[in-house]
Amino acid sequence: MLAVMMLVEQREAGLIVALVLGVVLGNLMFQILRAIMLALFGVEYRLSFAFSLEAVGMTLLYVLLVYLLALGRSRRRIRRMQIHDFMELDRQNENVVIRTSRRRRRVFVLSLLLGAVGTVLLLASSDTDCRGMC
Description:
mainly alpha; flat
């Protein structure tokens, strides 16, 4: 019983920390994107921190819904499976991770390159598209 209580306590503490970090980091990301967009249009920008209780509530609701849907789906699947099926899936997962690790690295490097190219093109186009308005 004590172990279950500790597990629940740790999970709840983790959820609270994740929520606080998500709100702070999400707001920081929003401010960075807002600064970039306003800089592209030449509009003055001041850093501000906004907190919306409604947005946090909606975020919690959506996370809870996704969690419950995933839990229900996996629960149905797990109930139908036997120990032999779990061992077979574990073996298959090992092979998949080993086979796709090289491909994942390539996709990651490609996405970094495309992100850098897109940023350079965006910055280059914003310099040439000003035409005296900047």
